[in-house]
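Hi support team,

I submitted a single chain yesterday and got back a structure, but I'm not sure I'm reading the token output correctly. Could someone confirm the output below corresponds to the sequence I sent? I've pasted both exactly as they appear in my results page.

Thanks,
R.
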Amino acid sequence: MRTIFVISGPTNAGKSTIVDRLLKDNLDLTRVITSTSRPPRVNEKEGVDYHFFSREEFENKINNNEFFEWAQVYNDYKGILKTSLYDDIPHDKNILITLDIQGYMNIKRNIDKNIYNIVGIFILPPSMEELEHRMKLRGANMHDAEIRLKIAKEEMNDRFLYDYNVINDDLETCIKEVKQIIQNNNKI
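Hi R., thanks for writing in. Yes, this is the structure output for that exact sequence:
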């Protein structure tokens, strides 16, 4: 049985940095490339960071039932193509996915539990003040930051839906904790 490790958390909690390190440290994990309708940010690459689609292309894929799961997040669509989950992943690897809470709940509800074990890991910032500080460091405008902070508070209320909660106060300690969770739940 393969395990799907889902990493979630509010914006700027450090999810992408943690996932990049986990993949670099080769824990028999492979990452599912998720899809989005937003344009690429600087340094993001098609097929590496996301599959980028226009809003119209994304909606056509929804209508053609091409997504395993999808949701509207902020003003953009995000989702996992069925091909990304079923065809693009080696069968001897566990799966690592970064998802929001809607995506995590969709995976838990829809995945074949005879084939996949699901482990949810929620990454928390040490405080809301630190989260706001991280947003400012990334250059978020004030209106955007206020909206994202409000959503972050709501998301953190749902952290108890996950199997594990890890505070990202110190990146190295956080990564060690997540690695231990993965090693303890490795079913391959």
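A quick pointer for reading it: The radius of gyration is 16 Å. Let us know if anything else looks off.

Best,
Support desk
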